[in-house]
Amino acid sequence: MFYILYLDTDMLFNEVCECVINYFADNGEVLKNTEEELIISTDGLTLSLKQRGKNILFANDDYEATYTCFFWIDVIGSYSDWANDLMLFVNNILKKFKGDCVLESNGEKPFVMRKSGKLYVDKELGGSEEFPFYLLEFEYQENELKRD
Question: Does 128 or 7 have the greater pLDDT score?
Fold first, then answer.
């Protein structure tokens, strides 16, 4: 199972990487850190951050956005707290970066989105998984989210 988090930020890519490395300083291992990609592994997630790729172009078209980078997040299903870790990471991103963002399940179903400063959550993922949205330290509106 994987998730993609698209992010619009004015920060330079290396500054975004530095924020992510700092967030995972106590429980993550940096596997790769180049001008093009950052890869970090934890007990529950393996995260790859990139600033280029066709999927950003498609996401920008689909969401009428200007995403500048994306996180490819592979979850380790056997790790029992992966959903908490994912939501805590998303919460950290929401706090650190003020731009628009969207979190997709399996690269197709958006379920957390910040657009124009408002946060939306779609709790209907179509599966049995319930996400700990209460870990998001922001007010949000429940809304059906779709990728155009």
Answer: 7
pTM, full prediction: 0.94
HSE value, Cβ hemisphere, 13 Å, CA-based, for 30: 16
User: How distant, in Å, are the alpha carbons of 7, 61, 100, 139 from that of 117?
Assistant: 13, 19, 7, 11
Structural domains of the chain ordered from first start: 2-142 (3.30.310.180)
